[in-house]
Amino acid sequence: MDIYFIFDTSGSMDEMGKIHLQRNLARYAIQMPGLAQEKCTDFVIRLYQWHQDISEVTLQSDGDIPSLTAKGSSSLAELSDFLFQHVYKSGVARVLILSDGNFPSSDTINFQNQLCTFPDLIIRTVAVGADADLLKLRKLSTNNTVYLPENIASAMNSTLFGSDEPVTAPVSAAQIQHSAPAETVEPEEDWDA
């Protein structure tokens, strides 16, 4: 099974060092199969950069991630076309998108409408940068969850092994109920015997 890492390399990623953060996250991601060998033997990580189009990132000869260059704008229509090509080719796709969510709201709505045509697609998003638009990124995720960069391992785990049920936290600690200890019933003794 393939897991597609798609790095938003549009012009907005050049701000606040977001492009460098993505490169470091990619470095971490390519180490994951070696760190968790018992869980990660059946998948291949494929790295892509996304601005006007989506192109595969080729590792350098030393196995490192090449420098990513931020330019242009990211198109959700291009992302949708890419997913259409790869989902129907492989049957099942796992996608992790790293982005700041800087794209038009109308594109987000169109992308959401097209997601229903991909029943076996699992998409997770990682918000990159302090100015990331969490609401837009949440709409791209098939389980309405956005991960922060420091939780990249959880995002990868959810992408590979998770379901698309929304993850919700309790509103307060009072909602977490502890089960009462079961009462033990001792048999009655027969005093007349």
Describe the structure.
- With 193 residues, the chain is of the alpha/beta class.
- It has a single domain, classed as von Willebrand factor, type A domain (Rossmann fold, 3-Layer(aba) Sandwich), CATH 3.40.50.
- It has 5 helices and 6 strands; from the N terminus they run βαββαβαβαβα.
- It has helices at residues 18-35, 76-90, 105-115, 134-140, 152-161; strands at residues 2-8, 44-50, 54-56, 93-99, 121-127, 146-147.
- A 6-stranded mixed β-sheet has the order 3-2-1-4-5-6, sandwiched between helices.
- The radius of gyration is 22 Å and the shape is elongated.
- The termini are far apart.
Helices and strands in order:
Blueprint: E1 2-8, H1 18-35, E2 44-50, E3 54-56, H2 76-90, E4 93-99, H3 105-115, E5 121-127, H4 134-140, E6 146-147, H5 152-161
Parallel strand pairs: 1-2, 1-4, 4-5, 5-6
Antiparallel strand pairs: 2-3
Shape: elongated
CATH class: Alpha Beta
Helix content: 25-40%
| Strand content bin | 15-25%
Termini gap: 71 Å
Give the CATH H-level superfamily: von Willebrand factor, type A domain
Number-wise, the strands total: 6
Q: What about the largest sheet? A: 6 strands, mixed
Task: Output the structural class.
Answer: alpha/beta
Look at the structure and give the mean pLDDT. Answer: 82
Low-pLDDT segments = none
Give the second-level CATH assignment, the architecture.
3-Layer(aba) Sandwich
Count of helical stretches:
5
List SSEs in N-to-C order.
EHEEHEHEHEH
CATH topology: Rossmann fold
Strand order of the largest sheet: 3-2-1-4-5-6
Question: Radius of gyration, rounded?
Answer: 22 Å
- Total number of domains: 1
Note the quaternary state here: single chain
InterPro entries: vWFA_dom_sf
Protein name: VWA domain-containing protein
